[in-house]
Amino acid sequence: MRITIALAVLFAQESARKAETPRPRAYVEVKLKVAVRPDATAEQLEKLKDRFERAAKRWWECTEGHMAFTEIRIVDRTEEGDVIVTNLDSTHCDRKAYGRTVGERVYLGGRFPIVTFCHEMGHRWFGLPDEYDDPKCGNCVMEPWKGVFEFCDGGNHTARGADCWSRILKKHPDWKRSRPGECPPVKISVEDK
Ligand SMILES: [Zn+2]
Ligand SMILES: [Zn+2]
Predict the structure, then answer these.
(1) Closest ligand to residue 140's CA
(2) Cβ contacts of residue 114 below 8 Å, gap of 6+?
(3) Burial tier of 163 (Cβ tally within 10 Å: 0-12, 13-18, 19+)
(4) How many other CB atoms are there within 10 angstroms of residue 128's CB atom?
(5) What SS3 class is residue 57?
(6) Widest CA span of the chain, in angstroms?
(7) Ligand 1 centroid to 20 CA: how many Å?
(8) From ligand 1's centre to the CA of 58, what distance in Å?
(9) CB–CB of 186/176 below 8 Å?
(10) What pLDDT, in 10s, does the model give residues 60-96?
(11) What number of other Cβ atoms are within 10 A of residue 116's Cβ?
């Protein structure tokens, strides 16, 4: 009798542990081609590689583990790609803006702030609006200057219109707010030309 009870306790502990461990779940995997329009040196390409790797990890955090850039190909002296690097020595993609999203294309400068990358991806993948005009959003990467690598929700959104998570959920109804967990490895390659 005593043995049976002890076993039952053990089973109960085991199932409690299982419930705590988050189950690995599916995420959207994206392969990205980065076109570097000017001719970059090997050193500049190395720096870009590092920057894109950090950016990919931050995007994983922003999407709370629902979307990962698992493969990034950085191609020197090329016109077309998912991300276009228009110049190498600037934080801006052009004279006026840090970044731009035109349709499915994202334009960045070679020294883009990581937060700009995530902000533009918010436009690109979810069609989210800017939240940096008054009234700004206090808790969202769509207002990038707070340095927040998150999307706002109904509880903390302070700009006009709908909060970003409710907009994201319209496109991805099965996504759930959650901790991102470990970012999957990002395979980054560089083609110097
Ligand atoms: Zn924007
Ligand atoms: Zn907001």
Answers:
(1) 2
(2) 51, 54, 55, 58
(3) buried
(4) 23
(5) helix
(6) 79
(7) 37
(8) 17
(9) no
(10) 999 999 999 999 999 999 999 999 999 999 999 999 9
(11) 22
